[in-house]
Amino acid sequence: MRIDLHIHSTASDGSLAPAAVAEAARLGGLHVIALADHDTIAGIASAQVAATGAVHVIPAIELSTYHSSGELHMLGYFINPQHPELIEYGDRASGARETRMRDMLARLGGSGINVAFEEVLDAAGSKPSSVGRPHLARALVKRGYAHTVSDAFDRLIGDHAPAFVPTRLATPAEAIDLIHGAGGLAVWAHPRSELLPGELPAFVEAGLDGVECYRPRVPHPESERIARIAAEHELFVTGGSDWHGEWQGRLGDFAVGRDDVSEFLDAGGI
Length: 270
Ligand code: AMP
Ligand code: ZN
Ligand code: FE
Ligand code: FE
Known about the structure:
- The chain is α/β, with parallel strands linked by helices.
- It folds into two domains: 2-86 and 168-267, TIM Barrel (Alpha-Beta Barrel), CATH 3.20.20.140; 91-157, Orthogonal Bundle (DNA polymerase, domain 1).
- 41% of the residues lie in helices and 17% in strands.
- It is built from ten helices and eight strands.
- An eight-stranded mixed β-sheet has the order 7-6-5-4-3-2-1-8.
- Helix 8 (196-205) links the parallel strand 5 and strand 6.
- The model has no long low-confidence stretch (mean pLDDT 96).
- Residues 6, 8, 62, 242 line the site of one fe (iii) ion.
């Protein structure tokens, strides 16, 4: 069984529509995927319809949280996409992300970089539920203000760059509560290993269920270290590509096996 538990679509900052993600997963030889868009569940239904049983689509979300260490992402799995609080959160997040994007554009404008909000939406293709920095990065490249998306992040909009404005939607503990309220399991996305030992006890106290462990470009000793720390705290481990589009390779190039994440899938009834 080939599994990828972290994929984005055009509902947020991915490049394929949700239905096309399901099809690409099938073509890439994946059997189980999780669609985990930033702060939105808008893509889940159409991915599930398009998957037609060939691929199992786990309903998921990647919540943007703020923390003393900076932006921290919390994945929610096996959530009920119809849960009223989750729908309310998605609506609020969509508006907050638009406001935050306009704040970033104003900061850029202050240094003579003039990009309109509509250009950011154009760069997203179809209107995303959740507008994000990758859209802005593409608009900056298109207008010649940056050479590449990486250059845009490095000089202008990365976490420590001058035009960055955080998305202050929830604390990690609030995100965990929201995920649990919607019937899901909360997993710390792409944890930085130097943060893990210090921060994990507080997150476990708040109800964290798992940590993302297996990822592309994370060397084996590092993922084994994360798995060991997770085991010490009796947490699930998960794995996923965090795939946004073809520039990261083909969907399905990265997969974890059932053995790697069996306890987590068992907990979700898969
Ligand atoms: P946002 O949710 O708008 O803050 O955007 C976060 C997203 O930006 C992440 O999920 C990544 O897809 C992307 N991202 C963050 N940092 C970088 C970077 N240095 N280079 C390219 N993409 C990045
Ligand atoms: Zn993203
Ligand atoms: Fe993330
Ligand atoms: Fe992600």
